[in-house]
Amino acid sequence: MKHLQLFTAVGLLALSTVATYANDKTRVSYKEVAVHDPSIVADGSNYYLFGSHLATAKSSDMLNWTYFGGGETDACTLFAKKIGYANAYNTQKITSVQNYKGATVSFGNFNAHSWQCKGNNVQGMQWAPDVVRSRKTGKWLMYMSVNGDNWASSIVCLAADNIEGPYVYQGPVVFSGFQGRYDHNGFTKTNDWTYTDLTIATGATSLPARYNTDKWGSYWPNCIDPCVFYDKDGNLLMSYGSWSGGIWELKLDETTGLRDYTHTYPYEINGNNAAEGGADANTTSDPYFGKKIAGGYYVSGEGSFIRHIGNYYYLFLSYGGLNPNAGYVMRVFRSENPDGPFVDGQGTSAIYSRYELNYGNNSVTNRGMKLMGAYAGWGSMTRGERAQGHNSVLVDNDGDAFLVYHTKFDDGTYFHEVRVHPLFVNEDGWLVTAPFRFTGKQTTQKQIESERLFSAEQIAGTYHLLKHPYQQPCAYNDKTDASFSKANEQKPVTVTLSADGTVSCPSNADYDGTWMFTQDGKSFITLTLNGWDYSGVAIKQNVDGYKDCPATCITATSFDGIPVWLYKEGVTATGIHEIQADQNSTKVQQAYNLAGMPVSDSYKGIVIVGGKKVVRK
Prior knowledge:
There is one protein chain. Helices cover 8% and strands 34% of the residues. The strands form 9 sheets. The chain has an 8-stranded antiparallel beta barrel. A 7-stranded antiparallel β-sheet has the order 12-13-14-18-17-15-16, with no helix packed on it. A 5-stranded mixed β-sheet has the order 36-40-39-37-38, covered by helices on one side. It has 8 helices and 40 strands. Among the domains are: 2-27 and 575-616, no CATH class; 448-569, Beta Barrel (Lipocalin), CATH 2.40.128. InterPro entries: Abn2_C (IPR032291), GH43_arabinanases (IPR050727), Glyco_hydro_43 (IPR006710), Glyco_hydro_beta-prop_sf (IPR023296). Residues 435-565 form the Extracellular endo-alpha-(1->5)-L-arabinanase C-terminal domain. Keywords: Glycosidase, Hydrolase, Signal. It comes from Hallella mizrahii.
C-alpha cells in the first residue's frame, strides 16, 4: 500500500511536468556555423566539416561547431605552403603514374589555375571539397573542385598527415571542358586537351570527335562536387558532376589518391557497347569520364553523395537552384551496387533519357525520394528553413546515419547554417529523416529493428504533423524575397492518433486515416492518410532549441517519396515498468533525464534508471 501511494504521488508529479512543458520550456542556443556544401568526416571523437571557399569547422557533438583553418584568407592553415592564388595548385607532388595499360609514365605537371577559363580566379572558385582517410596509407585525402566557366573545371587531390592539414597538392583527378572552344588562363583554346590527362587515361593521340562539341553541357559533366567513398569490397570510388551531362563515377588509386588509370571503361550508349563517334547524350559509360550514374541532358542535379547504409548504397542529390527561393531540395535513390543502377521507390532511374524540369512547382517529373522541403512553425523554430541541400552523410561505428546539410531561411537573405538530422531506414529499405536536429543519440537503428519502443497507449495523443509535398513552389529567377518564402513553406497541422489505430484531423480530412505497428517487437510504423501509405519509424528525440523537451516522433515516407513528420511533446519511450524512490536502489546504473540524455549523479528531479522512473531529491 505504501508503494502504491508513492507511485500515485510521483505519477502525479510526472503528469504535472508533462502538462506544463508547453509553458515551462527553456530555450537553448547552439554554436552555429555557415559552411556551404558541408562534407562531414569523423576523426576519433571529433567531427569535421569541409565546405566551399575553404570554410571548415569542427565539433565534438555535431551540434556546437567551431571554425578552424582560416578560410579563403591569408590566415588559412589548411595548406603547407603559403602562396598567392595565381600559383595555387601549380606544382604537384606526384610525377609518375601507371597509365591505362599499366605502364609507368610521366605524369607531367598540371596547373589547375591555368586550366580555368581565361579570367577565372582560384579564390572564390574552390568549391565543395570532400575528405577521406586512405585505408592503405593513413593519409587524409582532400578532393577539391577548382571551378571554371564554360566547364573548364578540374577536381584535384591533396594529402595531409593530419585532418586539419597542412595539405599538399598531389595532382589532378579529372578535367572537363576540353572542347577547344574557350581560352584558358595558361594557354589558348587550341588543342587544350593536351593539357589534360586524356592520353594517360585512354591513349588518345587526338581529340575524340565526341568531345569536339559546342554543347559540352548537354553531353559531358562539369568536373566539380566530388564525393569519395569506399565500397564494401574496399574499392575507393569518386562520384562527381553538377547539372550539365550528369553525375559520373571513377575508381581511384588509394595509394596515390589519384585516378586508377589501370581501371578502364568501355564506351556505351544506354548501357550497350557502341562505336565511338560524335557526342551522344545517352552515353552511359565513357573511357575518360567513367560511368554515368545520374542526371544528363542538363537537368538539375548536383552535390552527389553515396553511402552504404543497411543493405543498400544510397545516392543523394540536390535538385534545383541553390538560392533560398530557387527550389533546392534533397532527393535519394538507391542501388545494391556502388555504381548503380540507382532508382527511387517507383523504380525510376536516376539517369535521364531527355530533358525534364525536375524541381519547383512547374516540375514535370516525380523522381527521387524527397527528404524534406521548405517549412516553418515546427518545434522551436523562429524562422522558416528552406533550400536545404548539398548534403553529406556520416555513418558511425554502430551503423547509425546522420544527414548533414546547409539550410537557408525565409528572412530574405542568402545566409545559411549547417544542420544535422539522424537518418533511419524504414521497413521498405528507404531512408527517413528525423523531424528534429541531432542533440544526442536517443534512438538507434538497432533499437528500431529489435524493440517496440512505444506501446499503442504511448503513441496515442495529439501531434503536430508536417507533410513535405513533392512540388515545392519556387521563383525560377532566384528571388530571395521574404514574402515569397513565407507564403510558400509548409506549416504543421494538428492530428490525433488514438490507441485503437485511428488518425483524425478536424481541420483537414486529408490527414484522416489509420496507423499501425507493422512487425512484432519492432518500431516500424505505417500511417495511412487519405488512402496513401507512409512507411516509417517511431523514435524518441528532444525538440531542438529547447532544454530537456522530450518528444515522441514519427517519420515516414510514401512509395513516391513524400515524407511526413509527426511529434508530440512531453512523452518518453523508456520502457517504464514502475516508479520507485531513489534511496531504495542499490545498483549503480547510468541515469538519464526525460529527454533521454545521460545525467550526472548530482542531477535532481525525475530521471530514468534501468528503464524505471526515479525521483531524485
